[in-house]
Design brief:
With 353 residues, the chain is mainly β. It has 3 domains: 36-96, no CATH class; 105-227, Sandwich (Immunoglobulin-like); 236-351, Sandwich (Immunoglobulin-like). The chain is built from 2 helices and 22 strands. The protein has helices at residues 88-96, 328-351; strands at 19-24, 30-34, 46-47, 60-61, 76-78, 81-83, 105-107, 110-112, 115-118, 121-131, 159-167, 170-174, 180-184, 193-201, 212-218, 223-227, 236-239, 247-251, 264-268, 272-273, 293-302, 308-318. A hairpin with an 8-residue loop joins strand 13 (180-184) and strand 14 (193-201). The longest helix has 24 residues, at 328-351. The chain is extended. The two termini are 53 Å apart.
Length: 353
């Protein structure tokens, strides 16, 4: 089992397996070694941190169930990616030392990279950290004489967002850049360089997911651009019960029971569970319990980008006797009330986005 001094017992979140410097590369860089004890077929892995930083940045390596006991596997880690295999070193070098925007990807840890979570914001992840404060020739922050804090750079001037169009197969900026209100990023006094930013567009300026956009970065040392990944996929709206056949039968003249309304679930790839914002559009939830017939009720799910999906069910009003009646007006009012309340909730959500 190698070095007998490796920690092998009492492993908890705050007491991980020990890692040690086990070898050096040709460039005199220390390589880490750890001893893992696994149950066959189970997952284990590493959470990679930079120095004393407690944020891993999503650099979780969870592939060890594919390895063979006793096998030595070099892993190269950058940001939320890791490389192993025949071309690992080459792929790592290209990503680690090439400046650019990290493209959006969706994995077990959620969304990573550069994308727009809503029409007024763009989350940016760069492959390399860039200075956000003035640095001297030795790379140390230049302090303000009064506040004794690092002097910030004009980070807002580094970024521009353009509507784009394809010209001869190349996505090209179209017109003037969109107005940016501010750039959010880690501005703690101990932070001198950052690779993650949030670009907030100005009031009244929004992205339209029927169009295409480019975000650019440029400072004294680097420049790059990427198409902004917009959400064009509607939520997946389904009925909660797998046995529900889409039909609800009620007797003519009976009182509508809201408990009969079927349960549903709406899941969005980016926004997660949006079930509480499902609503019935005006005119798509009318039922007359005083008249025999079939009434189609349509449910609509909408995400932060306005992408919609619909499902429907049928209320069948059939002949029969009923001990208590219900007027047409009150029946219509119940289903329309569902629509009004749900739409109001969604509108409030959109305003606060």
């Amino acid at each position: 089992y190698g070095d007998p001094n490796f920690t092998t017992d009492g492993i908890t979140w705050d007491k991980p397996y020990e890692m040690k410097n086990g070898f050096k590369s040709d460039a005199d860089v220390d390589g880490k070694v750890t001893m893992l004890y696994l149950t066959p077929g189970s997952d284990a892995g590493l959470i990679v941190h930079a120095g004393d930083d407690k944020k891993s940045g999503g650099a979780d390596v969870k592939i060890f169930k594919d390895f063979v006991a006793g096998e030595v596997v070099p892993l190269y880690v950058i940001g939320g990616q890791y490389f192993y295999g025949e071309d690992a070193a080459k792929d790592f070098r290209e990503d680690a030392f090439t400046f650019g925007f990290v493209p959006m990807s969706i994995g077990d840890n959620g969304i990573n990279g550069t994308y727009a979570p809503n029409p007024r914001s763009v989350i940016v992840k760069l492959a390399l950290a860039v200075p956000t404060v003035q640095l001297d020739e030795d790379g140390k922050p230049v302090l303000d004489e009064t506040t004794k804090l690092p002097i910030p750079l004009d980070v807002l001037s580094f970024f521009k967002v353009y509507e784009a169009e394809e010209v001869d197969g190349v996505l090209t900026p179209k017109g003037d850049p969109l107005a940016i209100q501010r750039i959010d990023y880690n501005q703690s006094p101990s932070t001198t360089s950052v690779k993650e930013f949030v670009v907030q567009l100005a009031e009244g300026v929004t992205l339209n997911n029927t169009k295409r956009y480019i975000i650019t970065f440029e400072n004294e040392d680097y420049d790059a651009s990427i198409e902004i990944d917009l959400d064009r996929q509607a939520p997946n709206l389904t009925f909660a019960s797998v046995t529900f056949d889409g039909i609800i039968k009620i007797t003519k003249g009976s009182k509508w029971d809201q408990a009969l309304f079927p349960s549903y679930r709406a899941m969005d790839v980016r926004d997660g569970d949006v079930s509480k914002y499902v609503y019935v559009k005006e005119g798509e939830g009318i039922v007359d319990t005083g008249k025999v017939g079939e009434y189609v009720i349509k449910l609509t799910a909408v995400d932060n980008w306005g992408n919609e999906s619909q499902i429907s069910f049928v209320i069948q009003v059939v002949e029969g006797s009923s001990e208590s009646g219900c007027s047409t007006a009150s029946a219509l009012y119940i289903l329309n009330l569902l629509a009004l309340v749900s739409v109001l909730a969604f509108v409030l959500r959109k305003r606060n986005a």
